[in-house]
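anyone seen this seq b4? input:
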Amino acid sequence: MCYSYEVERAMGRWRAGAAATGALLLGVGCGKSSGALSTPATDGGANGGGGLFVLAPGEVAELTVVGGVAAERLATPAGNEQFVVVVASTSLGPGRAPLAYSVSLDPAEPPAPSALRTTCAIDSAPWATASLPPGTPPSGTTVAVGATRTINVSSATGFEAIQATAVAVGKYAVVWADVTPAHPAVLDAAFAQEFLTDFESTIMPRERAVFGVESDLDKDGHIQLVFTPVTADTAIAFFTGCDLGETFGCGTTNSGEYLYLTPPNAIAPPYNTPTAIKEILAHELSHLIHYGRKVLRNGLPAWHDSGYMIEGVGGFAQDVIGFQAGNFYVAMAGMDGIDKFSIADTLVDDTRYDTTRDGVLRGVSYLFVRWLYDRAGGDAANADGTLANKGGASLLRRLLDAPKTITGELPDATRSTLADTTVDFYTTLAMSNRDEASIGGVAPKNPCFAFLPAPVDPVTGKQRGANVYTQFHGQQMHGPKTQKAAAADGKILPGGVEVLTLDAAAGQAEVDVTLTVDPKAAVRVRVGRVR
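predicted toks r here
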């Protein structure tokens, strides 16, 4: 049958339906046979009656899933509308084998009404006024320049005892250089001093402002920054909880706050620059603080946060502390490989590393932590280098300081289910930053589905914040990997997401979509209009 399009002045939005009194008739189109027409729904409402669902640019609707089936008939009066379909699995159960789904673009019969998403899983209001827990920076007497020490360093074969000399000493940290005859660290004195100065003037104060004050197990008031070529056998840099307590699996401990870094001459370009090493240091320092606040302060026997939750916090530190550069590559790997990611890798406690998907898992986990921080209100970087908390640090501290794991604390802290949090996050990846000039789309109307603006840091000159279409180092991110709805591969990981594109056709008044998904995937389905 034919139907009319109208503007309803009371709502100020498009609606498919019969012309109403006082409405401005804009046109008439004929689509597929339908029953009674309907109004778009709001949260908790219904589009009812089997009519067309109308999305304005930037709006997102949630389709009701019944028995693994979701469907909708989307109005396309202009014939050039573009949509994304977010198929989000909320399953956190065991097993990572892909589950099946299918897509049909034949005439659809929604099993139940769809609804606009106008609310957020995470409300920023409580965090904007939440006070940060007080913290007193540690103080104590440490060594002088020229002091020597034997330090046990994790290596590819276990642990190696190295001889180290203190080459720079500051208020918060000591820079140590490996002087073991077999592998001395090449460390220029000027570099060591510059490194220490930036650590103490920017990195350390900002880490404390965002993550909280570090532990001081050895009571010397300092963090030991150890440069040794031995580290290169394990990673460019690392932190180990073994230094903060003898636990199962630890062969030895240095009983203090230690971070291990590879000297610049032993690192391949472009990761051997002072700025790159500072970015890595910000990442590793977040691990040390995370461990101290989660495990030591709570007297826990072990660190049960997922390895990728921990790495997500570390990637976020690269961003929020202001030295973000290499982190862009990791984020892009996550977006390009989004179909290989499962939120279970981040949210299921005690999850270990997966070398086959490591870059993807790190990248998306970082974006998840950044999104949580943004949804709580984020922060502001002041011209003097300080960070003003606008709610982001309040939520993050709550998650880090709780005796429960971050995953265990998240529902209590946000008063939202993990499922709601997951689907909002996945919707953000699909909808955020599409108003970039190079993309030519629109920003989401619901701020839940957008990262906060990513400004230039006033101190470092680097981008702070996430933008899934950002340009960097002569490259550009392209948002999450998408598939055309008509050619979807039909496989979704438990806890994973598929982002499908659905375009209108000229002369067609609607596009229809039906998804049939293995119920074990526990999917939520959303459709967003991006143009």
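Residues 128 and 391 are 4 Å apart (CA to CA). The chain has two domains: 2-121+479-529, 128-415+434-476. kinda curious what u guys think
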